[in-house]
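Model the whole thing, not chain by chain.
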Amino acid sequence: MPVLRLPKFGDPVKYAYITGRVRAKKTKLVPHDMYQRMLSMDIAEITRYLEETQYKDEIDEMAKDYSGADLVEYATFANLAKTYRGLLDVTIDEPKFLVLEYLRRWDVWNIKTILRGKFHGSSDEEIMKYLVPAGELDLEFLEGLAKKDTVEEVIQAFDGTDYYVALTQYDGHMLSSVENALDKLYYFRMERAVGGTLSVGGGLLLKYVRKEIDIKNVITLFRMNKAGIDASIIQENLIDGGKLGDDLSRMAGQSYDEFVRGLEGYPFWSAISDVVTKGDEISRIEARLKAYLVRYAWAISNYHPLSILPVLGYIVSKDTEVSNIRKIVRGKEADLPAELIEEQVVVA
Amino acid sequence: MVVDIIVDGGMLYGLIAVGAGLATGLAGIGAGVGEQGIGAAVVGVVAEEPGFLGKGLFLMLLPETLIIFGLAVSLILMFAWTPFV
Amino acid sequence: MSRVVVAGSKNVIEPVIENLHEQNLLHIVNYSGGDNAFAMGKSLERAHEISEQLIKLRSIERYLGITGKIPDREFTESEVVSQMSDILDVIGADVVTTYERIAEIENDVKVKQDQISAMKPLSALPIPLELLSGYESLATFVGTVDSPVESDVSGVSPSNEVFSAGDHAVAVFVPVDKASAVSGVLAEHGFVETSLPKDISGSISGAITTLESDIKSLGSEKEPLQKKLDGLKAQHEDAILAVDEYLSIKAQKAEAPMQFASTENAFVVDGWVPTDQFDTLEREIESATGGRVQVEMLNEGEADELVEAGEDVPTKIDNPSVVRPYELVTRLFATPEYKEYDPSLLIFIFFPIMFGLILGDVAYGLITMVVMFMLRRKFRTPGWTSLINIVIIASVWSIIFGILFGEIFGPMGLWDYIFSGAHYVGLLGTVAQPHLVGVDFGVGFYGPLGRIGPSGIGSFDGAMFPMYRLATASVLVLIGVSLFIAVLHTGIGSILGVKTELAYGEKRHAYYERLPVLLFQVFFAIGLLGLIVGGLTNPLVPLSALVILVSIVMMVKGPEGVMGATHIPFFVSNLISYLRLLAIGLASVGVAFAANKLAFYVVMPMLSGPEGAHGAFTTMAIVIGVVVLIMVHFINLLLGLLSPFMHPLRLHYVEMFTKFYSQHGGGIEYAPFGHVRRFLRG
């Protein structure tokens, strides 16, 4: 039960501006029933619809170079980066610190993208299109990385930073171990930086991040348990730091039915109860779990209206929106049936 | 005694003036504290959504009545209880 | 508003859309699924092509920096069609290539500027650029250091070549096998490597000059290109916006079916239309399709059911043209719901009076009016025009109140001084000898008001408000006026509240929530008046006490129960809140008074020396005094414009609207399917 906690005097006021702002931004997100309608539009119409919303600048700017699904995809990425950078620009003090700490995940994303690009020998331009410079590493630095020739050189560029230890796990053949290590590093850093230094605000960030880790782990378990992968390998892929860490790692390697029964009673159960038993596609379960996470962020921000949580809620909502749009557009490009696209769209 | 000194010595009016000042001043501080958070939030929202200005003003000016209360007390003190102009 | 259903077979869908769009009458309700018999409609075939053209056009608009403007000329549809391909392809391509070249140039310039700033510290090095890199057996380090490195480099690598210039620039050549050791040594000296351009040869300072001249020539290439873009913009701006409008309309029509419910062969449009316009709508559609559609008006019961189910009835805001600017104030708060009273008219009546009461100065009012008339020529968008019109009407009232209060640039005392040489002027025009200046109401005009307060203390004889203190009395009068306005204003709000609740069929809310508030506030004020006029024995006092008691009982019996009575402090504070009308006005008078006093009684006499103390000021003193006057009055006017605007706004939003307005979450505005044509001739 939430206990009424008296705020430290003057402290929550720091969040008043940014929470007001993100709550207004939230109302400008693509409304949920629009996804339904997008499914019956073609790509050009979707592009034009987006051109009349907050994606106007990016689509106008890129329309001369790209078209179709590419245009939407790159424009949404660029808009995502701009939106997140914008959040950092309009925050100060504690909120800024916490937002940046959370947005470092885009640093991880960018490093992964560059590594993957270099690993598969993509061109610099190709890699640049997928970068989202929303974290600490700015576009210039990332551009420099993208211009390097090999994976090793990219890794070398991080010498002396926290990322280096994780990156040196690269064995020359597989990127997955490095990617896992980067993910773990991100959460480890967050815990260390936030948990150690701040009281109330950081605690709320951690509270949410723990939940996020749990949901990520549950999704991993769904995928791997269904594929019948060995328990020890699954456990290696689980991220530490979640609230349900022990419970979930015990579930690794269980048979699918047993695993699903074990999930009953957890808070996220109600979000997936009707789809898991029918043995639906994992993608639908994944979409439901992600939607649960977005709802959770907004729900707990009602208990702490002047805190980092609404900002997190917005960051997650925006991220969800962009990935939904991309799923729809890419699905349309590949001529997937509407039902198949719809089940992957996250509607919170 | 003390009361006589205060009343006859003219201190009464001084004290009334001080009281009137305190009434408005403290009320103003209180309203200010109340408004800082609301104001910050409203500015944040209006930056995104200029149409919210009206409702924003409504929310922001709510605590302002506090000053008017203080002022009403001051006015009564100043004009009803003293010979000041 | 009436709920209308238009149904027809798919082969008349285009004429129906065309006709609906042209009529601009039907507020379409989006079909959102939910009925198994119907699917969401799909847009017409051509939507794809139109969308692509629009995306292209909008990106051209962006490169040209077109953001919408007031139309200078209008186009017919055939003009637009004939120009469209030219704009989209020929001019568009031209714009894109020009823009790309400009972007390229800007990028080049930036790269070159970066190179220059990197090489600047090294410009004194006596080695040509091509010799600084590209060796197989030699490692080179070029950059800046904090301290001389020669001796330390020799320490780890006996065979070396170190060039340095000035204190910081170095170029170190060592065998490759010593590279890592040397790099360690250099790091101790704070070595920062400079990345040198690979495609330039010759001396460094020469390279910098070349780069600088390159930048200049790039700049001269960019200038005509930029001019060309500006020229294209000036030439085609209206045409491009007309094409945009034309395509937007076509896209709107092509995508309209997505708002319809549809089956394999038929479609159904739901919507709202003003009741008196239904016949026109029906006749037009039927004649356009040769009677092959079904147009039907739902009866009230069915429409109400839909509203119960959560459908919003659109509201058409319709006011006489004088009141129309005040719709802005209403919309700022919320759009009225269908059954709610549109408060624009009330704002039109009360807002300017309150504004005038607060500002209340002939000169300030005149200045405001003149400035607003000037601004009206500049700002011609609808929002600004409304705002300016509001202030113009309000400034008329402030002139009227200014005459009543006798204020021109502050209390009339200023003019008394100039014209009569009176030497003591008090706030609000009070003077030591009031019978000589201003209006004298005579002893006893305020009658029993003087009885308030303790009597017999000190030198007081019980008469607290001797009439020679006009200021005191005016403040009290203003308190009374404010409270009177308060009761009137909130009272009207409460009456409307009762009406609105009855319109929604909520009798309990009307009689036990809205009505007691009205009784409470009115009789609270009457009771107060009775108390002041006649003390506790005045018959008004027990009467009001009784009514207030009844109203509290009603509140408790209301829908909120005992919680209803907890709002009482809010209702009291509602009334007191109107004292701001007096308080803010008083503050701005105070500042104006201080300005006059500062100029005429402090600055001017001081600068004029002892002999000028009684009116014979030197020219110098008058000039400086007038400057001071203008400055303080200007600041006061700026502040004095802001608060008379904000505070009446608040009185409407908080004190009045909470009684009746927007209690059901606000409505949506009537937005019929159609398009406002600006660049296209109809």
